[in-house]
Amino acid sequence: MLFVKRTLPLLITFVSGIIMIVAFFSGPALPRIKSLEEIFPQWIQIIMTFTMILGAFSLIRFNFQKIARKQNGWGYSIVLLVGFFGMATLGMVSGSWAKFDPEIKENSTFMCLAENKLTAVEVNIKSIETTKDGGKIITVENKIPDKDGNVFTRKVSTDRLKTPIMSKISILQQVLFEGVFKSAQSTMFALLAFFVASASFRAFRIKSKEAGLLMFSAFIVMLGNVPLGNMVSKLWTWLPFIGKYLDIVVIKEWIISYPSSAAQSAILIGAMLGYISSSLKIIFGVERSHLGGEG
Amino acid sequence: MSVLWRPSRGLFFLFIMALCLVSTVALYAQSEVMPVQNPTVTESVTSENSAEINNIKNAENKLDSKESNLSEKALSEGAEAMASSEDSIESLNSDSNKAPKIPQKPYYFESSRSSTLAVILVLLIFVAYYTFQAQRGREMFIRRISGLSAIEDAVGRATEMGRGVLYVPGIMDMDDIQTIAGVTILGHVARKTAEYDTDLYSPMTRSFVMSVAQEVVKQAYMEKGRIDAYRPDRINYLTDDQFGYVAGVGGIMMRDKPAACFYLGTFYAESLILAETGNSIGAIQIAGTAEPSQIPFFVAACDYTLIGEELFAASAYLSKNPREVGSLKGQDMVKIVIIAAIVFGTILVTLSKTPVGERLGFATAATTFMEFLK
Amino acid sequence: MATEILCVWIGAFITLCCFSFLYKDNPFYRFAESLFVGVSAGYYLSVVYFHQVLKPNLLAKLFPTFFNVGEAAKVAPDYWLIIPGFLGCLMLLRFSQKLAWVSRFTVAFVMGVSTGLTIVTSAQQYLIPQIAKAIKPIFIYGDIGQSISNTVLVVGSIACLFYFFFSTEHRGPVYGNLAKIGIWFLMISFGASFGATVMGRISLLIGRFAFLLHDWLHII
Amino acid sequence: MDIFLKLKNLDRRWVYVFVALSVILPMVFKFELPIYPGKAVMGVYNTIDTLPEGSRVFLSFDFDPAAESELGPGATAIFVHMFRRNIKPIVGCNWPVGNEIAEKCLTEAKKIHLDTYDSYLNNNKLVKNCIREPKNGTDYVILGYKPGGIIHVKNLCTDFMGPYPQDKDGTPTVNMPIFKTASGNRFSMNDIALIISYTAGTNGIESFISVEGDHKRPMAAGCTSVNIPRFTTYLQTGQLVGMIGGLPGAAEYEKLVDHKGEGRAGMAPQSIAHLIIMIFIILGNLAFIAENRKVSKSKLKKE
């Protein structure tokens, strides 16, 4: 049993790791082994989706416990769960289900989603073309003239044509996606502008020679990135002798392409050595904490 | 249990395994039916080129997907992207300049990748040699890495203040080596929190990492005989979305106010959000990543930062396990080899650019050398 | 039309809630945070993991008649995919206390494949090109500027590599000084990438304010 | 000195307020900062400005909507400049959706050209044969997207009609006046006076650079701000005559053609925010120095 519990997993790691390396170096004479180079990573992707169930379960249990015990802030857990179940259900339903999707035929009526998927109009299917790769391009015509009284035809792909109920679900999902997900995402990202400012206020103090270099290069690059840099360079051209060589933008570009680039490649070289030797340690079973304990 | 690594038996075992593997592979390859191909010259050229194009496209798609997922990432990755894309373009260029060649026989070994093999073998030899040396009891020295020495103090301080410890092992999945390193260090940190009886919070952005991390932490608490104190619900999943996760962790930080925050793994744009929020609650922060674009933010906002390779040295440094320390020494030796290669290559290339050097045949030597590094 | 306006208003509300994080933790931020975490987890579960990964890569290939229509439904199932499917199911044994160890096989397989892949790809795509990048002629006849620049590049790369040595202390006349120069280069590089990122971050903020001021309030 | 000491413990929220204001105020009040075109942008401008009238320039739109906000304004400004100089743009794309963006930029450029035509004519700033309303096929053409990247570019070096028998709308290219050559030979890269690629990633200007041995034409690039360091090398080696880097580059070009577009509009918030951050860095350092002085003074007193 100990073999199955401890040694077998190590063997699996070793064999699968070696197979990947062999696959990488094998030539076209070994098509099956070569193909493993692509097949195995796909398998990994599939395996990892299964663990999403574990993740979802963890999220649900964590928040249910909070609600059940009426812990501080349990109301927010309800919000979280409502958001989670709402989006998960809408997302599941609004995706394509080949078995249940109605067949698109000529002269039938469908709801056509607008490009931003936030509105839908009723359309008539005029014609269906099949492209080389098996996809379909469908020409549709507006059933109800738009506010200018125009009826127009256009080409759309199948995923924009829905039944009336499904179109409502898709729109609702899109509102959640655009309104909550997208705007929260880009706002969190935009917060960085503030954090960059406060971090530089605090961190760029010339406490030592090294800190001085840090600040100096950050300053030059920041200046050179905006028109201010050119303005300053313009001012400096009045300086005698050296003035015309002090072009901030040129200095900025030099810093980025030489000293900075040298350090970046050294960091990468070091990191890659770390990558490779850590990987070797895992393949050969030196490092195995990820497999957990003896039990 | 260390069957695999008791030197004599382990080696023998590995040898037998490798033999089995090679023979299986050989048999498998033999059984394959070779497709009969009579490619004309033009066809072979186009197919070769299109393969190259596909490669480039793949690389590009990867870049794109990275960019769309983590659109900021590319912002400071210029240099890196340059290196790879330039390289592929140059290789393509040199390929298309060559006379079209018809592969006489499908070959077994991808000889264009031989330089990669050479590099890996050199690394393997050095790392293996020093690992064995260390195992035999040879003393190896590791310099002090202040960020790692500070881990214990940070946990200690959190205990004194009666507040918890927050650990983030990066935002990528388990197939990323930095995440693996992060989870390994989590094990060491968990041993400390088990010892000091401090709360350990570790919200996760990937469910696979969560399940592995739970196992690692459980093991750590078990080793310290504190399995009763192990709380799996504190190693919980939040969301896969990069910024959704940051929003969640930021909230946890603001409310629970951990006294020590560790960020060790792969980070992208969220690095600064985490580090600044941690700073605003006055936590001791120790960060480490090998993403060159994100190190500056950690350096600016954290107390200690592990730069690049130091992250991978952490496991050896903390465990003081002789085998791991030995592998570090091996890495150092490889670095010497690399430095030697850079010096040698630079001399060669410089000489080849001088009028005298060109006549003496340095130019061809330099081209051959650089060709090998492609 | 109504849904579009609704979407903008929800977006604006969430945006302001998230910005309120800068002031301090407050109920509005907490609400937006919980909703964001829930919605994004739900989105990843249903749309990304199920519809974009699991369905096309596993289900549609194992059960083509059920998950495909037309020509694609007639393709023979790819039974090899039972293996990852099975390994994936093993992960679910984590729910059981007794059988949790079985999931180790899956973890072991994932680790093996990803480390094997990492070894070769990191050597080929990063390590070797980066070494090649550091090799430059340090003396070019008649071009002093380029010679100096190349020297900086070569010396900088070597010095920074010295900084990463673990088996010796940063001391001694040669080694200590080289490591020190390495730190200087690292600092310059950190400063430069910090400074270079600022522009992108400000653009993002401009984008967000443009949404609030233009799409929502119609001021500009 | 006390002010600086207080600054040291300044609440970070004040920093946030200033950053927010530095972005919002310039956006609302739309003021403009003086913009001085840098060397890289002047390189492109001067090259186009000295081309003989009627030259044809090949523009490659190698980006997608994600990079449009950065590269679009610059492309529009260059089109305007070309129309004023009666230079004929030939547009191709190495990225699939490039032609749609190209069309958008062209339409806008034509509008700007038309709006400013009379005032420029009165001021004698236009070339002799400047056309009021450039026509498709005669004064410009959009050829559309062709896959293949470098291979495709290589094919263009010898013949344009081969890869592009039709333009994007399906009109045959053979009889288009824009492709007439003096010698009557096939239209090839030799008949192009300048190559400009707007590059967001791979398959951009680097494809042209790598086959430069075949076409031997001057080249220029427009690129996203991420890529600026990457292309600077080519500027240094002289492989590019100039470069329009990111939105600042676009703003500089807009300034040169005297048009107030998105590029210049974005510069004010961008510059002010940078300025604010730099001021805060300086203040932080002053606070640090002030604190050091105080510490050393109190030490002296104790002694």
Describe, in plain words, how this protein is organized in 3D.
The complex is a heterotetramer of chains A (about 300), B (about 375), C (about 220) and D (about 300). Chain A has helices spanning about 1-25, 30-70, 75-95, 165-205, 210-225, 225-235, 250-255, 260-285; strands spanning about 110-115, 120-130, 135-140, 155, 160. With about 300 residues, chain A is of the alpha+beta class. Chain A folds into three domains: about 1-70; about 100-170, Roll (SH3 type barrels), CATH 2.30.30; about 210-290, no CATH class. The radius of gyration of chain A is 30 Å and the shape is extended. The mean pLDDT of chain A is about 85. Chain B is mainly alpha-helical. Chain B has helices spanning about 5-30, 40-70, 80-95, 115-135, 145-160, 175-195, 205-225, 240-255, 270-280, 295-300, 310-320, 320-355, 355-360, 360-370; strands spanning about 165-170, 200, 260-265, 285-290, 305. In chain B, helix 10 (about 295-300) links the parallel strand 4 (about 285-290) and strand 5. In chain B, helix 6 (about 175-195) runs parallel beside helix 11 and helix 12 (about 320-355) packs antiparallel against helix 14. The longest helix of chain B has about 30 residues, at about 320-355. Chain B starts with 6 loop residues before the first helix and ends with a helix. Residues about 1-10 and about 30-100 of chain B have low confidence and may be disordered. The two termini of chain C are about 20 Å apart. The mean pLDDT of chain C is about 90. With about 220 residues, chain C is mainly α. Chain C has two domains: about 1-75; about 135-220. Chain C is about 75% helix and about 0% strand. With about 300 residues, chain D is an alpha/beta fold. Chain D has helices at about 1-10, 10-30, 40-50, 70-85, 100-120, 150-160, 205-210, 210-215, 230-235, 245-255, 260-300, and strands at about 55-60, 90-95, 140-145, 190-200, 220-225, 240-245. A six-stranded parallel β-sheet of chain D has the order 3-2-1-4-5-6, with helices on both faces. The model of chain D has no long low-confidence stretch (mean pLDDT about 85). Classes of the chains: A alpha+beta (about 300), B mainly alpha (about 375), C mainly alpha (about 220), D alpha/beta (about 300). Chains A and C meet through helix 1, helix 2, helix 3, helix 4 and helix 5 of A and helix 1, helix 2, helix 4, helix 5 and helix 6 of C.
